[in-house]
Write a structure and sequence with these properties.
10 strands, globular, 24% helix, 9-stranded mixed beta barrel, alpha+beta, 277 residues
């Protein structure tokens, strides 16, 4: 564990130490519906606003030096996703995510941690169709210039991921992540719209492409295999089944049929980036 993170530093003032239900913690259910290729273009035209949207560049970290076979992604195969995000202005973020996460790997000190300084921890179920996966995500906000410096090779990855994130990885990940030995892949270009109304649902739309933002209005114009649209809604665990069924029915009524899940999307993106690395 990095020396700058003490054991007692893992619980923020907003936590309630001693909660008997901390080991059963589940913050939310994130319902995801994903479209690719021509389906992504059609869904974006049908659902996304004509203007606005937050544009970002997303980078992934992988242990390609350990890989001996095509398509082998050691971190992803071990359920570890590391990514950096550079947005507009000074906004940036580093994310360490365990997906799928085995709850037994999370000690109570992590289950009790919620937010302190730039770091925030979220434990959620991700639902995509019939698939349900537990994910544990520790995000650290940072300056966009730090992400850009790492992408340019001018700064190490260990300088971007926080000390608390490095402690989290050392404690909970199934594989050792030597940050400074990893390969940075990307960028993936995304544009997101928040609080988009679909009947009584307020969803997040995220369009992604490995080729740019598409054509025409700048997004959703592509029809190739490297374009996708993710529709997501974060809800309380209670009643999540009803919300998922309702959202799925509304999309089907509009003739929109999903063809991917979040795991398949991440793997496809990383495999493509790794081939070009």
């Amino acid at each position: 564990m990095p020396a700058s993170v003490e054991r007692g530093d893992l619980t923020s003032g907003s936590d309630r130490p001693g909660r008997s239900d901390s080991l059963d913690r589940l913050d939310s259910v994130e319902i995801k519906v994903t479209f690719s290729g021509a389906g992504a273009a059609a869904a974006t035209r049908a659902l996304a606003p004509d203007t606005g949207g937050a544009r970002r560049r997303v980078y992934f970290c992988e242990a390609l030096a350990r890989s001996t076979a095509p398509g082998h992604l050691p971190l992803l195969d071990a359920g570890l996703i590391l990514r950096l995000r550079a947005g507009s202005g000074r906004v940036g973020a580093a994310t360490a995510e365990l997906r799928p996460c085995r709850r037994s790997r999370l000690s109570e000190r992590w289950l009790r941690f919620r937010e302190q300084g730039p770091d925030s921890f979220h434990l959620a179920d991700t639902w995509s169709g019939d698939r349900r996966v537990l994910s544990a995500t520790l995000v650290s906000d940072c300056d966009r210039t730090a992400v850009e410096a790492a992408a340019a090779g001018a700064a190490s990855l260990s300088s971007v991921f926080s000390a608390r994130q490095q402690a989290f990885l050392a404690d909970c990940a199934d594989v050792r992540a030597d940050l400074d030995a990893l390969t940075l892949l990307g960028p993936v270009r995304t544009v997101s719209w928040h609080d988009v109304g679909i009947d009584h649902h307020a969803v997040v739309l995220k369009y992604g492409s490995l080729r740019g933002y598409g054509s025409g209005n700048g997004y959703g114009g592509g029809s190739g295999a490297l374009d996708w649209l993710e529709v997501s809604e974060r809800v309380a665990p209670e009643g999540a089944e009803v919300v998922q069924a309702s959202l799925t029915a509304l999309l089907e009524e509009r003739g929109l049929e999903p063809d991917l899940g979040p795991v398949a999307t991440t793997r496809r993106v990383l495999e493509t980036l790794a081939r070009d690395a």
